[in-house]
Amino acid sequence: MEDLDTTVLRTAQRWQAEGLAVVLVTVARTWGSSPRPPGSLMAINGRGETVGSVSGGCIEDDLIHRIREGGVEAALTGAAPTVLRYGISADQAHRFGLPCGGTVELVLERVAPHSHLDELLTACEQRQSTERVLDLKTGNVTLHPGRRDGVPQLDEHTLTTYLGPQARLIVIGAGDLSRFLSQMALSLGFEVFVCDPREEHRASWSLPGVTLTHEMPDDLILRLKPDARTAVVALTHDPKLDDLALIDALQSDAFYVGAIGSRRNSATRRERLRVHFGIPEEMLDRLHGPAGLYIASKTPAEIALSIMAEVVAVKNGIASKASKQITCEDSCRDYLASKAETLAS
Fold this sequence. Notes:
Helix content is 38%, strand content 22%. The chain is an alpha/beta fold and 345 residues long. The model is unreliable at 325-345 (pLDDT under 50).
């Protein structure tokens, strides 16, 4: 499953190839509360069909109405991109369903060969981060290597946005827990790999949209070379499978590296990696163990929710370790984590 930005770009590319007029809409700036962050994308074709979103729905309805009433040209001021602002007045904010005080500034551009969507999608597929610069006078686009998570920049001449590879999750171990975790990751737009060299564990494991591999986990980590958009989670509870993969992941650019287990088992793993493999403390500090936020998980699905919540929190820049509750309920967590190990094995 693709992330939403890629889906929008790919759909706009397909519509344009089919000969349809297409408008690409980008959230350039927001003030106050807004339903969608800067950089969010939406595409509308000449029939009024849409993909993606820029608000809770009312702004989309207005844009569709503009196109249905007067065609794509009605949404643009000629061939050049158009800048629209919604929510300046309280009445307009109420009309378009914006939160109190919210204002959204959009840039609308007509998709054409000079939009370079083909090259942009190819860069995303190759896990390359790209800076896209749109000339607001001509509609021409230039692409440059850039960071993935930059905030869009709009001035009187250009709109600069940043796009790149979708988030990726590498799961070590095939079981009930990995199935729930993979389902959640797919719904959040992650590309998912599940690795388990144990044939008996892979035999009945399948999930559409997930790449299942039988190679040794550390070989997979070395092959995929985790980047800053990749998370790695070990679920096998087997040091022969987990340890080398975790070591390689900790030495990569992965934004999240975690392993399931009780606090006692996690402490034992950390000591084993430090003593037997010489992993320095500063590197071990990157390891999330036990993986997941404390939510008193009781089932594989709840444990998967806990882990995925922590992965998303770290991806979004939140230091999840501060969010973990270290209380008298830790003994309960140890018991539940131990139970999860049995369920997942």
